[in-house]
Amino acid sequence: MSVGMAAPRSAYACDPDRSRGRLFDEPPSKTRSPFRRDCDRVIHSTAFRRLKYKTQVFVFHEGDHYRTRLTHTLEVAQIARALARQLGLDEDLTETLALAHDLGHPPFGHAGERALDACLRDDGGFDHNAQTLRVVTALEHRYPEFDGLNLTWESLEGIVKHNGPLAARNGDALGRYRERGVPVGISDFVGAYDLELWSFASLEAQVAAIADDIAYDAHDIDDGLRAGLFEVDDLKVMPLTAEIIAGIDRRYPGLDHDRRGAELVRELISRFIGAVVSEAGRRLDAAQPRSADEVRGYGEALIAFSAPVAQAEAEIKSFLHHRMYRHPRVMRVMGEAETILFDLFARYQNNPGDLPREWTPPGGPEAESGTGRARRIGNFIAGMTDRFALTEHQRLFDSTPDLR
Question: Is the whole-model pTM more than 0.85?
Answer without folding.
Answer: yes
